[in-house]
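In keeping with the milestone schedule agreed at the kick-off meeting, the structural modelling team has produced records for the first pair of proteins. Each record is given below as a sequence line and a structure-token line. The laboratory manager (R.T.) confirmed that both were archived under the project's standard naming scheme.
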Amino acid sequence: MLRLLKNRRVLISAAVVAALVAVAVWPTTVPVELVALSRGPLVVTIDDEGMTRIRERFVVSSPLAGRVLRIELEPGDPVKRGQVIARVRAEAPPLLDARARAEAQAAVESSRAALGRARAEEQRARATLAQAQRELARVQELSRTGLTTRQDVESRTADAQVADESANAAAFAVRAALSELQRSEARLAPMGPDTTGRVVTVAAPVDGVVLKRIRESESVVPAGDPLVEIGNPHQLEIVADLLSTDAVRVRPGSRAIIEQWGGDKPLDAKVRRVDPAGFTKISALGVEEQRVNVVLDFVDPVAAWAALGDAFRVEVRVVTWEARDVLKVPTAALFRQGDAWAVYLVDQGRARRTLIMLGHQTGQEAEVVSGLTEGARVILHPGDTLADGARVKERQQK
């Protein structure tokens, strides 16, 4: 009886040890987060900060040496072309010596050359506007007969609008150059004794608003001293300084998206120019970077971004590639396998390491060229402990 009892205890102990060993070596099921691959649009962008600026700025200067009277205009006040914005009381200037007179004469010649260049640019801009309007009329006629696309019509319309703004800007530049010539000639004009004390009015060269009041209080100013800065807030553009390695992938006409500007929805923009020269900029981490200015124009009507002003911060996303229907995989599912990309594909409850080939990538998604099919389920954020062939189950979302 005692021997039987002892044998039973041995058997029970052996069974318990065997059960513990079986539990220890039994394959565990790893809870994972799964996602099914789908097709959809993919947009690859270059993201950076940008700043708005008024395209054409006009600094109104004193036409002669004298005492400028107090300027009553405040920043933001609208002005019309020809409106008096400042008054200068003439004072007897010192006589010009030979050197000063030679410099004044050189300034007059330079101003005349600038005026000629501005007029030539105005003629070129008006010719471009006429061509853009003819192209727009042609595609509109083709659109009525169904021989062109709506996108082509919209593109020609945007080109005509840009050409119209360029022509207006060229006209403003001619007026500014003419004012500069008059200012330069005023330095050489003799001032008689009856001129001293005369109040000379300074008029606005264009329609716009006061951006900056450089001289506020009454003070003595030399000829050419800046008084007021004027600009048209409806002629707003965006400047983004991109890394030179990113700027080489941007082309004029590229689509862009403006975000984080304070409005309810993103704005559409278009790259107008990529500067041909870069510059060095120190990053926040103290690293020297080569940057290139990229200039963009708004595509949306003025009413959509009227709340923006000069030197406002925005987020710029320049589109370098996009497609409407591609097979996409989240980048959170990717990991490196040697020199290739791989994912863990779930097949019959097991994780299968699968090599894939990728195309274009963003920070969140990547284009799958080969290796996976639509509807395949892959593991997100695979850990280092996950092995090929491991049993997995989908983690329940809380």
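The second protein of the pair:
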Amino acid sequence: MKKVNDLENLAKKYRKELFEKLLIIKQGHPGSIFSMMDIVVTLYHGGHVRFDNKNKVFLDKVLISKGHATAALYPILRDFGVLPLKEWNDWGNKTSLLRVFGNTSIPGIDITSGSLGHCIGAGAGMALSYKRSGKDKKVFVVISEGELYEGSTWEALLFAQHHNLDNLNVIIDINSLIILGNTSDCLNLEPIKDKIAGLGIETSEVDGHNIENLLSTFEKCQKINKFKCILAKTIKGKGSSVMENKKQWHYWNPMNEEEIKVTRKELS
């Protein structure tokens, strides 16, 4: 497991690398990618997603339900040697397996996602199968809070709680914005914690940009033999003053030279 400072530096490095890629391909979802970067860096490089270094495969499953932000995993998978370096280098320059939305043709990506509201259900099915077959495998599902607008999300939460899927971990990236604007204005979801905990689910809250807090929260959750849900408070577009807390940066936007310069400096 890497140290806190190392993880913080990796998150910054990955945001910068992905920003440069999005500059080339001129599409993507930087706001959503940047908001969850600290979460996935802590999961993978913090050792919570177990890795077989000999065979270069992950022993646990990670499902990015907010599929438009799956690209957050690409530099991580590259650094673990799961994703060929050539595929990363070719992305935006030549034909590559990599896409804005992740799919299972990409090494290390465990589900094809993008249609919101399905991955807790898929993850619950995986987790139940592993429990019944006696396999020591964990499933992590990262969703956006906007997916709490989907009835399928609540149905899956009920299913996972009913079956006490202690090998399933749901992380909700709460950046308070969806495509249309503030979630509090579009359809208020609060109090999210009370609603989920009210279903009997073990629920905790964490600052989604504080690596130390993320590490301690993930470690604590792994000691609890219950189905768990972590609410991670984040900032959409984290790290770039051009993008932070701005709904239009759910999608890629044209940038002038000054905005590019400022963003590069802030992400360095």
